[in-house]
Design the sequence.
């Protein structure tokens, strides 16, 4: 299912794997391994040159995947990611310029925030689904819990320092839609093409909460 709204991204799975690829050739088997484990939404960061071609390949060759672009920091990257076939966009922080560029693609997006003022600026613009980054460093679960009082309409995907151990506590918060993290795609498993290990990690993560 392609997400139509940003809130739809929260319904696909409890975890969005954040993927940093050095070689776009690994993108398709990696995406298949994650989907096989029950994690269809995949955020491929634009931190590496391989990011855009990886998005292109996954979008074209893995029908069960919902591939998005992460680390979107400029309007040009938002447009490029949309052109490559991204189904959603994620940014580590946000400015009005970046928000407008992401909105202009027509794709669902999760702009990054770390404070009440940043969340308020997005709420003023009608954006209620956000990435909370860097989650652990910025205050973690206590900060999110504190925001749920005054800003109950804001919902978050905490990312940055999330692990299988702390993910359940985040997912238990009323203002957390899903969490994100890189732990599903360890560098050594990627290098070795150990797709079975990645499917096993995805399966564990998918069980953190029933989808929907
Ligand atoms: O580049 C970005 O915009 C990001 O998306 C940053 C990632 O969310 C974090 O790097 C997650 O990393 P872990 O803490 O290893 O799970």
Sequence:
């Amino acid at each position: 299912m392609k997400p139509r709204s940003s809130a739809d991204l929260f319904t696909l799975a409890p975890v969005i794997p954040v993927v940093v690829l050095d070689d776009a050739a690994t993108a398709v088997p990696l995406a298949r391994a994650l989907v096989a484990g029950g994690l269809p939404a995949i955020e491929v960061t634009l931190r590496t040159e391989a990011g855009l071609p990886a998005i292109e390949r996954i979008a074209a060759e893995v029908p069960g995947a919902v591939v998005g672009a992460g680390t979107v920091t400029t309007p040009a990257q938002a447009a490029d990611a949309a052109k490559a076939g991204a189904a959603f966009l994620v940014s580590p922080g946000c400015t009005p310029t970046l928000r407008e560029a992401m909105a202009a693609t027509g794709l669902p997006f999760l702009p990054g925030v770390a404070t009440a003022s940043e969340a308020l600026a997005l709420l003023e613009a009608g954006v209620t689904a956000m990435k909370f980054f860097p989650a652990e460093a910025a205050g973690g679960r206590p900060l999110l819990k504190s925001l749920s009082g005054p800003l109950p309409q804001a919902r978050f995907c905490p990312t940055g320092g999330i692990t299988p151990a702390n993910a359940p506590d985040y997912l238990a918060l009323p203002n957390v839609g899903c969490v994100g993290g890189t732990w599903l795609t360890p560098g050594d498993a990627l290098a070795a093409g150990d797709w079975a290990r990645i499917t096993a990690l995805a399966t564990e993560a998918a069980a953190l909460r029933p989808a929907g």
In short: The chain has eleven helices and nine strands. The longest helix spans residues 195-206. Residues 103 and 109 are 7 Å apart (CA to CA). The mean pLDDT is 96.
